[in-house]
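quick one, 272 residues, struct below
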Amino acid sequence: MRGARPERALDAVVRGAIRFPRGARVCIACSGGPDSVALASLADRLARAGGYEIVLAHVNHGLRASADQDECVVLSAGARLGRRVLIARPQLARDDEASLREARYEALARLAQTADARFVATAHTAEDQTETVLLALFRGTGHDGLAGMPARRALAEGIELVRPLLRVTHAELATELRRSGLPYALDPTNAAARYRRNALRGPLEALRVEFPQLDRAVARCAEILRDELAGTDRARARRALREKLRAEELLRDVPFERIEAALGASERGTAP
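---
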């Protein structure tokens, strides 16, 4: 995100993805890693301006020696922000990716219920979306898999899971992290080859050298496909605008971001 004040552009992207009502309470899933701590910083700033409340929610699986250190990092970040921290320590029967993911979401749902929160926000990024789409593709998925992670979905009765960072990259969050000065921890299992997602990261880093917009492009494709599958108003408006530009032979000259900005302005009733 270019410009003298990149945090303003980042705030605008996240604010557009969140849209929490005033007075709402939101659990921010915070592992203690850099992305989730950056989300906590962003959400804290936006919540103060938007009139809603945030609580940090940490799930400690206790599977590695540094797990308690991560918990301490989250507690420290919460203290620095002046935000309440809730912690879950689920009992695990297995430690494979699917079991860990299921246990984490179940724990987050319980923490949200404890906090009387209607929303849980996670720090999944554009890079995470790329990995999700590719893993689905390698499994021979259909349209639903290629649409990647949804930006919003039901987590439990009365609780919605929100992923406001699917258009945001690690590099952009690193800028927010430096600005905030909050502590964070690095997860050593991010390099563990036993997890399939990690096996993608080396090849993807090499591809990003040649295709620096790779993650934005995959996130964009996944978002468009998900809108089309759901038959949303945005999908219909996007198609209509693209057809109009195509008829005027202007489509090749108008980037996706300009089209989305025009659609957003139309939805808000403001000039693009």
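The mean pLDDT is 89.
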